[in-house]
């Protein structure tokens, strides 16, 4: 927990709870992201931006739901960072709130709803506890998680967010090659990841082994080089590798689907005849072997590559 009490924090948590419960009622998957999330991880960061990520296809529905709660969509408040910026010039949708904080001071809050493809490039789903490049890994936690320095304490509503290392990965992919985000990545590493490492937390999403090897390369470059062009070159190299890796995965998926189709067709053709049954058993065991090999390629490749890098 941060030593400094942030008088804006109780209101920020309340607004986050209101948005999250409205989205839950509408059945829209969402996670807390951005500035308030950063404050939850680090315990020491402003919290005037209450950011949520929703699947692209649910962005309009999410905003319509929030509209119906009468949140203002435009502002003339000069302390708003969107003041005078025309709507449509940014990916996120914004709802503006002027509210009293714990010190009875009028403060401007922005509730921002981001489409997933913008905020979390590389993620296929959120809130399904599935991380796209390491199947079955658990990437989500609650804002009230005891391990987080700035965890929610004023609200108990179960709001989901990425585990810290997955959040680190999300901001690396978000800011890949963009100078403006590099300092945020360094700060997040310094204030959140390093202390976690020092505590020796080995749980999923809290230890650095949860970070995909390609992002480890990027992170190393961001932490150890101040030359933006050098970092950009690394980012491009990693990106082209990831593209090839993704193409490889989808190729393997096609092969797998082809094999399954052949298998199904075989099963339909099968006759309950003893002499043929022996042949069919042999075939099946061969196919099972093929499948096992493919699973090795799909499932274990990441780990093999991680070891290569190390
Ligand atoms: Zn605003």
From TrEMBL:
Q: Region labeled Disordered — which residues?
A: 259-310
Composition bias, Acidic residues: 260-310
This chain's protein is named: Uncharacterized protein
Please give the organism.
Answer: Aspergillus homomorphus (strain CBS 101889)
């Amino acid at each position: 927990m941060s030593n400094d009490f942030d008088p804006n924090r109780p209101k920020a948590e309340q607004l986050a709870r209101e948005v999250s419960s409205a989205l839950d009622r509408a059945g829209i998957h969402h996670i807390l992201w951005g500035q308030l999330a950063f404050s939850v991880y680090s315990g020491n960061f402003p919290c005037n931006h209450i950011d949520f990520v929703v699947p692209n296809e649910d962005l309009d529905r999410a905003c319509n739901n929030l509209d119906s709660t009468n949140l203002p969509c435009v502002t003339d408040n000069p302390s708003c960072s969107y003041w005078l910026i025309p709507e449509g010039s940014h990916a996120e949708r914004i709802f503006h709130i002027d509210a009293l904080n714990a010190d009875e001071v009028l403060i401007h809050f922005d509730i921002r709803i981001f489409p997933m493809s913008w905020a979390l490039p590389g993620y296929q789903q959120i809130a399904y506890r599935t991380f796209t490049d390491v199947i079955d890994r658990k990437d989500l936690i609650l804002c009230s998680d005891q391990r987080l320095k700035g965890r929610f304490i004023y609200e108990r509503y179960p709001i989901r967010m990425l585990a810290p290392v997955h959040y680190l990965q999300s901001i690396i992919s978000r800011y890949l090659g963009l100078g403006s985000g590099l300092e945020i990545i360094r700060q997040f590493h310094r204030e959140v990841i390093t202390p976690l490492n020092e505590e020796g937390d080995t749980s999923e999403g809290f230890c650095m082994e949860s970070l995909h090897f390609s992002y480890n390369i990027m992170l190393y470059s961001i932490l150890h080089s101040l030359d933006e062009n050098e970092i950009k070159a690394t980012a491009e190299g990693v990106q082209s590798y990831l593209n090839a890796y993704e193409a490889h995965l989808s190729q393997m998926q096609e092969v797998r689907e082809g094999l399954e189709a052949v298998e199904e067709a075989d099963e339909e053709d099968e006759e309950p005849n003893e002499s043929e049954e022996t042949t069919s058993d042999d075939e099946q065991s061969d196919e099972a072997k093929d499948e096992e090999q493919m699973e090795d390629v799909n499932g274990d490749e990441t780990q093999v590559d991680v070891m290569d890098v190390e």
